[in-house]
Automatic annotation (TrEMBL):
Gene source species: Chryseobacterium takakiae
Alphabetical UniProt keywords: Signal
Signal peptide (UniProt feature, chain positions): 1-25
Protein name as annotated: Lipocalin-like domain-containing protein
PROSITE patterns: PROKAR_LIPOPROTEIN (PS51257)
Record carries keyword Signal: yes
Length: 130
């Protein structure tokens, strides 16, 4: 009987050791993975010399590219894509475009995507949520 209790005790101890080791991991910051990738829906817009596109029922599909700090933005409604935009982490769970200013920025957080991006006389806007 003592031998059976000892074996059972060893199995229980082994179970707790394995469970403790496998459950311990670093907290995963969403800014370090593909957390921000996905579809955001809301208002989108684009203007250039020839076009003025605006929709309150648009979407932006966000993908993280291989560099790890750059993202692509595929717009609906015939709006040209923004590709290879570089980001820095700001705070715990927010990404902000490198070189952001008050009049040109892209900001992604837990549930929202905000874009006001100006380049070469073209303007992209988005106010979207997941």
């Amino acid at each position: 009987m003592k031998k059976a209790i000892r074996i059972l005790g060893m199995f229980v101890l082994l179970f707790f050791v394995v469970t403790t080791i496998t459950s311990c991991s670093d907290d995963d910051d969403p800014a370090n993975n593909d957390f921000f990738a996905g579809t955001y829906k809301g208002s989108v817009g684009y203007t250039d010399g020839d076009n003025n596109i605006s929709s309150n029922d648009g979407s932006v599909f966000v993908t993280k590219i291989a560099s790890g700090t750059k993202y692509n933005f595929a717009f609906s409604n015939g709006i040209p894509d923004l590709n290879g935009v570089e980001f820095n982490q700001q705070g715990d769970n927010t990404l902000v475009m490198v070189g952001s200013t008050a009049t040109s920025y892209i900001r992604i957080d837990n549930n929202e995507l905000r874009i006001l991006y100006l380049k070469d006389g073209k303007s992209w806007t988005a106010n979207c949520t997941r």
